[in-house]
Amino acid sequence: MSLKELEVLLKQLISIPSVSGREHELSAFLSNLLASKGVDVREINVPGCGPSLLARQTFGLKGKTLLFYGHLDTVEPAEGWDSPFKPKLSEGKLYGLGACDMKAGIAALTLAFLKLREVSGLKGSLMLALTSDEELYSRGCERLIGSGLLKGVDAALSAEPTGLKRLETGRRGRVVFRVEFPRGKANPVVKAAGFIVALEGMHLKKGACVSAMAVESWLDSDGSPSLCRVAVDRLMVPGETFDGVLSEVGKLAGRFHGKVGFHPRPTPYMQPYRLKAGEPIVKALREACHEILGFKPKPALGLTAGDENYLAVRCGIPTVAYGPEGGNMHQPGEYVELESAVKAANVYVAASIKFLSSRLG
What we know:
By secondary structure, this protein is an alpha+beta fold. Helix content is 34%, strand content 26%. It is built from nine helices and 17 strands.
């Protein structure tokens, strides 16, 4: 994979705005690009968003199926960024909205997918999924799962920007609770304040996190508060369950006469997961890195929840995340280190050859 080849494609991707829910133009661009190379591409309609894409290359009737995975969307441009869709290359860093999260990953996956179509001796199938709405509610991944098209996938590789020395073999889960404090003998706002203070002092498992993320209150006709509502963000680690953390927060809210429930959202919340070190996709990625880069990346737990949680937990697909280096994600001046994206693409090719030809050490 050449540096120039990836640079040209990535600049094209950055220049096409694809904020969550408005991925249509980028989806069409990549669909046309893949189709022009003779790739069989299926568009999956996602209500309220641009279409997700699923491409497939079959090498043989027998063998494993590997899924390349990336998301099309970006967050909204942050304030203070005048030209978020105008890519700029400076000292090896390519700047632009989504450069790192995750259009460099999409470019690397796409080029790796096309390169692997030319490799002989592979077995099974390679799929490339590019979905919408990952930054908000994962509606693209939800729709893809519902289509049934992921049945039979043996492993998935996501190109999230982990950095080349870090291989995410799992991710934290996430759930948001809505805790309500009604009017009673005590002021509901005061009860909520007491709950928030107690929340910050909770004893949690290593890596877990809980915080109040929003507070609302309503007034009666006499001007006194009738209800106070607190949104609670809870990041979960492997071994924790929705029912368990709901009970945990519920008991604490009960001390302040509060009631807890799940904050509504259009798609399910994400449960945590962690793969075993012996998973073939983990071995393939680490061995490929050793061959291409001279080192094996350290297995780690992703700090946030994402589409990978859906793939691993709901579909039972062993899913890893590995991608390029960069910085300022979701902020003005977001960038990716271009050479790291090329290295990631070459690792994808080498790891896929190992996985699809069963050449694992």
